[in-house]
Amino acid sequence: MNTTDSTDTIDAFTIERHGELTIVTATPALESVGLGLEILAAKLIVEPLKGEVEPILLFDLSQVTYFGSVFLAVMIRCWKIVLSKSGTMGLSGVSSHARELLHFTSLDQAWPIYNDRREAIDALLPE
Predict the structure, then answer these.
(1) All structural domains of the chain
(2) pLDDT attached to residue 19
(3) Measuring CA to CA, which residue among 57, 63, 73 is closest to residue 24?
(4) What values do phi and psi take at 56, rounded to 5?
(5) 45-57: pLDDT as tens digits
(6) How close are the terminal C-alpha atoms of the chain, in Å?
(7) pTM of the full predicted structure?
(8) Which helix (H) or strand (E) holds 115?
């Protein structure tokens, strides 16, 4: 089993707020983290979503070419919360490798995928 220290896990993503929009940006460190990511992500991403009304969430994947099942599970957990609160979730900057994974799991049909962060922000934020 691959183990990582908490510093590697913390460096796996950043979280930003832009008005009503929360942006989770995956960093290159995400490609090499293990199971500790799910615990940290639950604390930093999933739990705050539970307190929002109609959350708007964007996963910016432009800095990674690959993400594994642990991060995919985090995104699915977030999606379930967003759906239950009539919110919106999308992805931006998805690599061709990641698109294959999303297509294989049919999640490319569930989540809007934008070419870049600017396009996603324009589409997700209300006027």
Answers:
(1) 6-66+88-124 (3.30.750.24)
(2) 87
(3) 57
(4) -120, 120
(5) 999 999 999 999 9
(6) 47
(7) 0.88
(8) none
